[in-house]
Structure formats: C-alpha cells, structure tokens
Amino acid sequence: MPTYSVRAINVGTFNLGEADKIITLFSAERGLIRAVAKGARKPGSKIAGRAELLAVNKLLLANGKSLDIITQAEGIESFKSLRNDLDRLSYALYYAELTCNLGQGLNQESELYFDVFLKALRQLCQAGGNYIYHCLNFQLSLLDLLGLRPELDSCVVCRKRLIESDLSVFHHELGGAICNECFSKGNVEGKGRRSVLHLAETGNNYRHNEDLSSKDTFSSHFTYLTPLVWKKLILAAANYCAPAHHNVQAEVIDKALVAARNLLETYIEHLAGKKMKALDLI
Question: 96: which of 11, 66, 150, 173 fits an S-S bond (Cβ 3.0–4.6 Å)?
C-alpha cells in the first residue's frame, strides 16, 4: 500500500466505530486530508494524544480506498496552554473551523497557509489578551491566500480612494467598502439596503461615540461601516498589533475592534455559506 508523509494540524475529529477516529488534517504538503486514526480511542493508545484537535504532527499515511490511514504519528506541538484557557481555545477552534470550511481552496498555497496557521496558534499561546488583533490578522491572511481579501482602500463600485468622511457600508457580495456617493445613488443592487437603513434608523448598530458598526444578520449583504472600525481593519491588514487599553476612551476603541472582527466574521460566513459554530464560544 503506497504511503506518504506530511506535517499536519488536526482541524476536525469525529468518532468511527468503537475505537477509531476520523481526523481532518491540514497539511503543508497536500492541504486538507481526511484520515483514519485506528485505535485512537483505546485506553493507553500511543496515537491518542496525537489525534487530539489542534495537535501538530509529522505523519506517515497509507492510501486507502475512501480514507487514508495514519500508520505513524510523531508529535511536534500540542499547545497545552490553549486547552487551559477558554478564550485562547475558543479562537483556536474558530481558526480550525475556518480551515475545515475554506481549506479546499488553499491547495496551491498549502505550505504557506500551514505556516500562517501554525504561527497564529503560537501567537494565541503567547498573546497577553490581544486575541482580537491576532484574529483579525489571521482572518485577513486566510482571505488573502484565497484571493478574497476585502477591498478597504477604494470603493468597490467606482474605485475612488476612500477617506474617513466618505465611508458608507461594507458590501459582502462585492467584497469591500462602498463610498457614500455610490450607495446614496443606488449604484449597487438594492437587496439588503433597506435592512441597513433600518438598522441605522432604529439604533440596532453600535451608535456610541464613533463606534458605529454591527455584526449584521447572516442573510444581509451589508454591514454599516464607520471610520474607527475601518481604521481597525486597515491596521490589521498592515499586520499592526496595537497595545491593550485600560481607560474609558479605550473601551470605545475596543468595541470598534470587536465590530471589525464581527464584520470579517460575517463576510467569511457569507463566502462559506454557513455559520461558524465556534463563534458561539467567543
């Protein structure tokens, strides 16, 4: 039976029969792989710890008819500190779920994404509470490798360079920000516009100081965009990680940061066509 070796991160698992597990792996060499870890649920099994979610291993796999079979597993990293902290673990599970749902589009970039993913997990282990910044960086890196990075610098309709006073909404279908002029003239499809205007009028968006954004409904094409949230996205795109804040003004900034993460979450869910279950933990 032909075999091959990979470096891989476990991004999904479920039980098979009485003692086995099926593991979804993201490998540097082949992207997403589904493989069987035989005996992984037996007490004292050597492969048990290496079959855990988020474990990083060097694996030898044998080609199977429908699923490949893990024949050898050498542990590289287990990220124990993630498992002892719910906040860190929640973000790590979100990264894994994103990988499971969007990883098929990363085959040609598998080695680069593997490095990005591994770095992101290591950052979570070291981060001093700056999880949202790291999450923004990871989301944008994933979208960039998929060729779906959102357009934040220019209006996706007229291509005019955006400035703070000219921001309107983020359009999930078009994949970027729209200027006030294009949105007010109806230069984009009308579907979803009414819901955004309704949200703005009824105050369902964050409307406190400059923190004007929302995590829109899954079916909506729009998320209302504001200068502060826009800046957070621009900084994250530049891989800038700001320090944590501990004053009243900083609370507004932190809310804008959450809104920026929520905007990208909604955009990614729109692309994936499904909700990410791990978000319920964050």
Answer: 11
